[in-house]
Amino acid sequence: MTIPTVVLAIGGFDGSGGAGNLADVRAIQLSGGYPCAIVTALTAQNTLRVDRIERVSTELIRRQFRCLVDDFQIGAIKIGLLPSVACVETLIECLESEKLNCPIVLDPVMRATSGDALADVEAIEVLLQGLVPLTTLITPNIAEASKLTNRSIDHLADAIASGNQLLRMGCQNVLVKGGHFERDKGTDIWCYQEGYEVFEPRERQEGTVRGTGCMFASAIACHLGQGKSVRDAITVSKALVSHVISEGQSFGQGTPVTTLGIKDQSF
Ligand code: PLP
User: Angle at CA 28, nearest 5°, toward 144 and 147?
Assistant: First the structure.
């Protein structure tokens, strides 16, 4: 086997396996990459609620980063939950010190599907000023794009305006995910310097599966690391997420989780 692209997923640990690093790992493997991870926060949560979050120290974040970049050639980075200003600042410092020269996809996680807050609001400003300019692509859902750009997003035109505003803050591409649109549910808008493109879902899907945002961004990062264009990386990753939603299973008591890619036979 040829050596797979190493994809570094930076984010929170959700022990229920629905979201965070564990979901990232699944998406990266399903996309043909080798996953490695930096944990920014440990959470106690299940499919119903987030019970507690403990931030990992900035020193340990720095050391996790150093260990991995000293050893592996990182082919792509996916960034998820950054719970605090200190965490965002530390990551910016790490990325600026190393110049890894690989695509960086930022999923600006703020809240869980359950409604529980995951990150401090103060972290948003630092993220916009320092981290967004370092990214290849940022993948907010409409609630996150709305928070980041301080405008309400009800229609596709609002999402385009919000995406363009984020581009002016220095990232190369923005994908505003429309999974929560009332009318255009599942329609995503990709904004780039020269224009925008609309990605329609193959079918309008009902319901929610945990971790779809994490998996979407991780799959895109992996495909970019493998050399695909942004357009192609979004297209294949959107197909993966659509499978995740259609195969979602409720074996907890709350929001369904994905079982895509689980083999039902032993070696
Ligand atoms: N927990 C962690 C650690 C996460 O990173 C995220 C999302 O990125 C969530 C929970 C929320 O996931 P969901 O909205 O799918 O419940």
Answer: 5
Residue range 192-220: average pLDDT? 93
Nearest-angstrom CA–CA distance, 192 and 54: 36
Is 208 among the residues known to form the active site? Answer: yes
Nearest ligand 1 atom to alpha carbon 114: 16
Strand order in the sheet with 195-199: 50-55, 34-45, 6-14, 74-79, 104-106, 137-138, 173-176, 188-192, 195-199
Active-site entry in 163, 179, 186, 213? 213
Atom of ligand 1 nearest to the CA of 109: 8
Tens of pLDDT, residue by residue over 100-116, are 999 999 999 999 888 88
What single-letter DSSP state applies at residue 67?
H
Q: Does the Cβ of 23 fall within 6 Å of ligand 1? A: no
Cα of 125 to ligand 1 centre, how many Å? Answer: 20
Prediction pTM value: 0.96
Q: What is the pLDDT of residues 149-199, one digit of tens each?
A: 999 999 999 999 999 999 999 999 999 999 888 888 899 999 999 999 999
